[in-house]
Amino acid sequence: PEFKSMLQASRGIGPVRVMRQGAVPLPLAARPPQSCHLATLHRSLCQRPQFLPSLAQRPVIALAKREASPEPADDMDEFEEEGEEFAFDDVDLDGAQLEDDAAGLSEEDRMLRQLNAGNLEGIDDLLDEKLSGFEDDLQAEAGMPFRQPTPSGEASTSGAPDPESKYPEPPVRVYFIADLFGKAAYYDAAIMLEKEFPQVAVYGLQASPDKIIQGDLYCCMPEHLELVPSLVKQAVEAGASALLLPEAAQGVEGVKEAIPASVPVLYVPVVDDTASRLAVAFYDAPSRELLVVSVSGSRGKTTTSWLIRGVLEEMEQLTGMIGSVEYALADDRLDEDGELWAPREKDPAEGRESSAPFHVTPYAGRYTTPGTTPSGLHVQKLLGGMRDRGAACAVVEYGPVAAFNGCCDWVEPTVVVHTGLDFSDHKDEEGQVLVSRELLLEAALEPFERLADADTQAAVVNLDDDPELVQAVLRAAQAVNCVTYSVRGDADADVVLEEHRQSIWEAEMIIRTPEGRIEIIMPLLGEHNASNILAAVATGIALKVPLKQIVAGIEAVEVIPGRCEVVDEGQKFSVIVDSADTPQSLRRMLEALEGARNIITVVGCRGDEDPSQRPAMAAVAHELSSTVIFTNDSPRTEEPQDIVSDMVAGLPDHIVNRFKGYVYFPFQDQGHVPLWFEPYLQSAQRATKRYVMEDRFSAIRAAIGTAGPEDVVLIAGRGHRDCMEYGGEAEGEVVRGWLDDRAEARSALSKLAYLEQLGSLDRKELPWGKALSEMESVMEGTTKEQRGEARKKAA
Question: CA–CA separation, 668 vs 684, rounded Å?
């Protein structure tokens, strides 16, 4: 019993209350209080026994045969009033209750005494002996068989990749539910669960009912409360051992009826907050065993994160990534549950070099991420998956809204990087502010305020950001060393851009650091990307990485998917795919291309998102581009022509008014006008070099086919995203189709040789060829004849 009790981690801090079904609601903090944050949590409740170092690579088994225990108190306050220390088992881990007399001790007892005294000799043999057959005992007592790992590519929380994998096999984690809640310092819940559900075991935490494996705790985070009954039913049928539901779901019809009496259910105000905290306990606080670099801000996070990962990998550190483009460990992608990703179905587009015009190519079997930063639960699962597979470092990218939502509340970083904050970027699809400026600022500062250990933690701050915000960040991070950077020559910065030269292909910069000057050459253009490079350099300085490795690591990152990604197939002009999808980011990217002979911009706006951005996007593209092609970008449930109409409203009046006498508005796709009007529409668009092609396949090919030497084609807005979203047949339905701007650009470039063989084809302007020019001559001649006849009649 003493040995098995040692395997239980049941001490904690609190109290934070969780209510059970039918109980009177008790307050649960929307966020963990400062005193309950990670460092305290780990020291007091999540710490694995330090005298069992050989357990690090063994399955973490928290279940144990249970001895008769005293009846738990009804209220936590009674424990506090009596001055007793709360624990699920009245076991003294320091060995004080063992008999002092060594006479008559068995070999096992002598081993235990050595263990308590800090003597580890022979402990591995004892562990092997005690753990042998332990799973069979647990299966019999918990009434639940141990789960087998699921095949690669399927959802799994058992953590076992292919046996031939290059990574260690992750451990199997199992807890009695009362122990898990106790370890997470949810006392009242733990007492209730110990009393009413003593044998319920938890094998994993899962937020998606379709991924549940028998024994998972289902953490229900529905988009709409009406969905809770069906989600709960699906989870129970899949074998969920317990349910964590939103407090508001108690009044939803059908919820209680869907829950068997044998399944414990707990209602909480914010499921993700509670699930995140449980995940910290379940996965043994993975961020404490990793060097974590958190990259925070409104812009530049993805590029900065990839460059920092390059520096860490140059130092031969196995590094994980949580970001917009991918969740990954080294070269292997992870799903949101921290498992090695593999396609679950065949990719219909496999082997194709591009999509097809006016056609939706089915999208399936491809890797996607749900967003920049996953939920707090999934952050812990991802970090746990990385740590269990041997990772030493992790780079976590998140924005201020994610920070406000608490996604990274339970992540303990080594370095926090502030890239810059733009409060105007955070609006919903109707243009309403998601979170107030004050709350966003508070959330952005919180990670820096939690930095407390000057010996092991640091901050990296962009001095080119708003001066008041910069000072607020520096004050928040005053407990640790701050490494600052500036591309604008701020004299107070530690890392400064001294020289910056660029072509349409690459940028060369000289950077001054506290350790000396360095030169970096990268295919990342513009001041904003120079700032991202400096952020990575400053992070390397904060981590005391030698300058040589900093330069090598950054320059080794040849491509950041969809971030100023240069598509080079040997052509005489540059093609860049970038994720710029706001007026501010589009302006930064276009200003970076000022040295080009001509800038041809392909741009669109997504449907079901803030419509106020659309005219602003068009205005920026018009201002800074020689030629603009307005096109589709995931119209979703909106009509593509409506989105384009919103965009071209941003064109200057003097351009639009030139054609106000036309029967049809000329700045729309020619598919929406009668055949006889097409020459007039094409003529107006050619005269202004402002074209509308709703089919993105055609728009990209038109831009690349029109480009000449030293031009730049910018395909903006989608970046690494490889699917388009269209409205389906049912109301509100959205279907996906494969379309990758990078693949489309490469395909178009591969066809240039065929176009060049057509020497007589004029491709300087759209539409190509002489047909429109000849038609314009006819149109102009007809107009002169009509004017002459009109003058004769008037005479």
Answer: 11
The radius of gyration of the chain's CA atoms, rounded to the nearest angstrom, is 31
Helix (H) or strand (E) holding 291: strand 291-296
Which residues in the chain land under pLDDT 50? 1-103, 112, 115-117, 127, 130-161, 163-164, 428-430
Q: What is the pLDDT of residue 756?
A: 85
Q: Which phi and psi angles does 575 have, rounded to 5°?
A: -120, 125
What pLDDT is attached to residue 163?
35
From 207, 150, 141, 152, select the one nearest 174 (Cα to Cα): 141
> Strand pairing partners for 518?
511
CB atoms within 10 A of CB 265: 23
Q: Which own/partner contact pairs does 533-536 have at CB distance under 8 Å and 24+ positions apart? A: 533/307, 533/509, 534/485, 534/486, 534/487, 534/495, 534/496, 534/497, 535/295, 535/300, 535/304, 535/307, 535/308, 535/417, 535/419, 535/460, 535/462, 535/485, 536/304, 536/307, 536/308, 536/310, 536/311
Q: Are 232 and 217 in contact (CB under 8 A)?
A: no
Q: Buried b vs exposed e over 691-726: b needs ≥16 C-beta within 10 Å?
A: bbbbbbbbbbbbbbbbbeeebbbbbbbbbbbbbbbb
- Please tell me the distance from the alpha carbon of residue 671 to that of residue 694, in angstroms, as a whole number: 9
DSSP 137-162: HHHHHHT-PPPPPPPTTS--SS----
Residue 425 is predicted with a pLDDT of 55
| Helices 467-476, 437-449: inter-axial angle, 10-degree rounding | 40
Phi-psi region of 712 (alpha: psi -120 to 50; beta: other; left: phi over 0): beta
520: which strand partners? 509
pTM of the model: 0.78
- The helix (run of H) or strand (run of E) holding residue 325 is none
Residues with Cβ within 8 Å of residue 218, at least 6 apart in sequence: 206, 207, 209, 212, 232, 235, 240, 242, 243, 244
Cβ-proximal residues to 54 (8 Å cutoff; 6+ apart), any chain: 120, 123, 124, 127
CA dihedral of residues 178, 71, 23, 173 (deg, nearest 10): 0
Rounded distance between C-alpha atoms, residue 33 and residue 47, angstroms:
19
Paired tokens of 421: 């904050």
> What CA–CA distance (Å, rounded) separates 406 from 159?
25
β partners of residue 394:
292, 320
DSSP string of 412-456, one letter each residue: --SEEEE----GGG-B-TTS-BSS-HHHHHHHHHHHHHT---TTT
Supply the DSSP symbol for 30: S
Q: What is the pLDDT of residue 556?
A: 96
Any residues with CB less than 8 A from the CB of 99 and at least 6 apart, and which? 105
Q: Which two tokens stand for residue 362?
A: 């089915």
The pLDDT value given to residue 43: 33
State the angle between helix axes of 301-314 and 547-555 in degrees (0 to 180), rounded to the nearest 10.
120
Q: Are 629 and 691 in contact (CB under 8 A)?
A: yes
